[in-house]
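agent> fetching stored inputs for the guanine docking request
agent> found them:
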Amino acid sequence: MTVKEYVNFRKDEMKNLVLKMDKKPCIAIVQVNEDAGSNAYVKGKLKDANELGINADLIKLPLNTKQEELLEIIDQLNKDKVHDGFIVQMPLPKGIDEETIKLAVSPNKDVDGFHPLSKLSPCTPKGIMNYLHHENIPILGKNAVVIGRSNIVGKPMAKLLLKESANVTVLHSKTSFEDMARYIENADIIVIAIGKKHFLDNKFKYKKSAVIIDVGISRDESGLHGDALPDLPVYLQTPVPGGVGLLTRLALYENLLELVSK
Ligand code: GUN
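agent> prediction call returned; pasting tokens
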């Protein structure tokens, strides 16, 4: 199935689950930025909530919000009985420390899975794993290459792949081109999240059976682009747009439903 087909299929299942609940789940989304990517993400998350029958409150704060003010709002959300979970959309403006904010969210309400004590996984890696499982992509003993080492994607992605016994290699900005080419050529699964338009292209060789999961999004005059050139000669490649963004949004509500069913 394409990502879009899979997401629609899973949304139908989740909609039915929500219908059977005594109380509609409720999420809050805190947004303290105005970047185009976040606006698009938040709009998508609100649309998904609506489709799934989940209540969602957007709490939009001005760009000059101070860290203490944000911490105060997080404290209220941690304590209130209305919201089952909430997220603080990243990135945050300069002057607010993202790690401090992630740690301030109670693990009991952390639907992003960012808190070290959270039992949930971060949405992007979780959404990707769910899709790989659904497509029956073998993971155990396979060569998985994660390109990019961010806290939101690269590191938790490597951890989840390792948990399922893949041979995981994390490549990054200090990896030489020769090493990059060597690992990519032998990779069964490539997850790339670096935000560099079409970094993976025909200068690299790929296994015909390889799976490329394209997390990157960059925007220029001609539109949105992934980290991989479309239609590389591999078994499966997720598109941008219409790929990992949808999986991330879906995983957020999978996490929320997991929280409320506990
Ligand atoms: N910014 C990009 N991806 C995410 C995400 O999964 N959660 C939050 N809170 N912010 C993001």
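agent> quick read of the result: The first helix runs from residue 3 to 19.
agent> awaiting further instructions
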